[in-house]
Amino acid sequence: MRNTRADAYENTPRDVIATGNDYPSHYVLPAHSHRRGQLLYASTGVLTTITSEGSWVVPPRRALWIPAGVSHEVHMGGPVATRSAYVKAETALAVGLPTRCQVIAVSPLLHELLQEAIDLPAEYDLDGRDGRVMALLLDEIRRMPALPLSAPLPREKRLVTLCRELLQQPSQEVKIDDMAQRAGMSRRHFTRSFREETGMSFSAWRQQACLLAALTRLGNGESITQVAVDLGYGNPSAFTAAFRRVLGAPPSRYLAAPTP
Fold first, then answer.
1. Is 256 helix (H, G, I), strand (E, B) or coil?
2. Are 98 and 144 in contact (CB under 8 A)?
């Protein structure tokens, strides 16, 4: 089902349904939720999804699993083509899909299954080829590894406001003392509260926010040098080293689409 609103089909008597949509650059899907879990796949382009718990960036050929009932907004970093699989909540639980949002890898097989699934009718034949495609799709989602492409958000009001602002304009040059002062906290109280709320030190969170922003900008064709300078890294080499350390590959290789 292409260019279709999924909520019109959520009551379809199938464990898994799929839709495909194309969005223009900087399009925003306002906060909404689904009765089914959603695998949101960036076939092309980079998107960012925000919930009350954090921010997730989905580069090309990766996907975000969003459990049923989780309110989320989606921001398109540029032109984006999505392919989504919607899984009944009880089915997702039965097969062991995550109970929290999680970016996952997308294998060449999963990519092809999603491309095929969006052209199937809503009430596909469960006992025929279409049913087998959807069953294999569900199996392949389940076996994909998780990826570290999120920045958790605190719940404390002062901290979450500052974090949301920093996600909009991240920089390695933002200092802990400045953030503590803006939050009206001592440095010690700020660092302790930040770790308790997010599970990360502020320095690690700041770096993660920078790398997530970099993924969006690099995915839209900006140069590594410009991105590194804007994010406050001393030079492109320092940025590339941080990128490789956290994500396991240099930017050019990480953003290259896997060969089917």
1. coil
2. no
Instruction: Judge whether 131 and 192 are in contact, CB under 8 Å.
Output: no
**Concatenated DSSP letters for 54-103?**
EEEEE-TTEEEEE-TT--EEEEESSSEEEEEEEEEHHHHHHHT--SS-EE
Report the alpha-carbon distance of residue 244 to residue 260 in Å, rounded: 24
Residue 145: how many other CB atoms lie within 10 Å? 8
Distance, in Å, from the CA atom of 58 to the CA atom of 41, rounded to the nearest integer, reads: 8
Could you tell me where the DSSP H helices lie in 156-201?
A: 157-168, 176-183, 187-198
Q: CA–CA separation, 187 vs 190, rounded Å?
A: 5
Q: In this predicted model, what pLDDT tens digit does every residue of 113-129 receive, in sequence order? A: 999 999 999 999 999 99
Q: Which residues contact 114 (CB under 8 A, 6 or more apart)?
A: 18, 39, 41, 43, 83, 85, 106, 137
- pLDDT, residue 30, reads 96
Whether residue 157 contacts residue 189, with contact meaning beta carbons closer than 8 Å, is answered with no
pLDDT score at 259:
41
CA distance 37 to 66: 6
Give residue-wise pLDDT tens across range 209-247: 999 999 999 988 899 999 999 999 989 999 999 999 988
Q: What angle do CA 155, 232, 189 make, to 5 degrees?
A: 35
Residue corresponding to tokens 């396991």:
248
pTM exceeding 0.85:
yes
Structure tokens at 253: 């290789």
